[in-house]
Amino acid sequence: MMRKTPAPPVAGSEDIALELCALNRVFKLKRGLFSKPGEIKAVNNVSLRIRKGETLGLVGESGCGKSTLAKMLLGLMEPSSGNVLINGREIDPSQRRALARHIQPIFQDPYSSLNPRRTVADIVRVPLALHQVGTAQEQQRKVRDMLDLVGMPERTHKQYPNQLSGGQRQRVAIARALVLRPDILVCDEPTSALDVSVQAQILNLLLDLKAEFGLTYFFISHDLGVVEHLVDRVAVMHKGAIVELGSREQIFSQPEHPYTRMLLASALTPEPGLGIPDIAREAIA
């Protein structure tokens, strides 16, 4: 069973780990030879603040802009306008190396995010080598300690990703993300590619690591059940904009925006006999 995380204490502005200031991302569309190019606002004027030690969940339907927003936070994509502040300091997206010391990703598919030609130990060691953290012996020790912390036995350290299960691969991805001891983890659907039986183990591991290192999580998911148990606050995204932001309890018990209510109503329930929600049945029709 997955444990529920307690909410952190209310903090002042000096305790803000991550701040998004009016972020926008516009994609240009090519049309016909004699037509003017169009544009799509994938992220539309998003402003958010995440406190240190907090888990903020971002939910919304596929294609609403969640992953685009995550890429901008990680410096993988530059915003069309707006900026990102980490611990009160503006971060230049082009300075990827400096950014990586503060914020790291955990991606949806652990197999595609791991180099198949490197062993588990080498994969986790790469960030330390790139940032020249410690001697070779110190790097090896850090790698062993981190892999042990995420539950990877020593016999797996010399194995390759294709020799591991999906849950083990995601543990390796988590170890790689944490080996530099960042302040913030961006978790983009970190359990959606895993079997249901493994998801709770990975989520409990994330909770344990959050307590161990005092981490801040930006947790992106379409699984409302996971979000309800894991996060402290919820931001609801629709067509690139944040349409509602509130505590976990408020969003799931008293949602205010029509889109939020529709999103909650469309979620499947494990209770037998209730069948498919009406809104989902209409979508199928």
Could you walk me through the main structural features you see in this protein, from its secondary elements to its overall organization?
- By secondary structure, the chain is α/β, with parallel strands linked by helices.
- It folds into two domains: 179 residues, 3-Layer(aba) Sandwich (Rossmann fold); 69 residues, no CATH class.
- 34% of the residues lie in helices and 24% in strands.
- The chain is built from ten helices and ten strands.
- The strands form two sheets. Strands 6-7-8-3-9-10 form a six-stranded mixed beta sheet, with helices on both faces.
- Helix 3 runs parallel beside helix 5 and helix 4 packs across helix 5.
- The chain is globular.
- It starts with 15 loop residues before the first strand and ends with a helix.
How is this structure best summarized?
With about 280 residues, the protein is α/β, with parallel strands linked by helices. Helices cover about 35% and strands about 25% of the residues.
Secondary structure tally: strands: 10
Give the CA-based shape: globular
How many DSSP helices?
10
Number of domains: 2
* Topology-level CATH name of the largest domain: Rossmann fold
Order of strands, widest sheet:
6-7-8-3-9-10
Structural class: alpha/beta
Radius of gyration: 20 Å
Strand content: 15-25%
Q: How far is the first residue's CA from the last residue's CA?
A: 35 Å
The description of the largest β-sheet is:
6 strands, mixed
Q: Determine the mean pLDDT.
A: 87
CATH level-1 class of the largest domain = Alpha Beta
CATH architecture of the largest domain: 3-Layer(aba) Sandwich
Low-confidence stretches: 6-11, 279-285
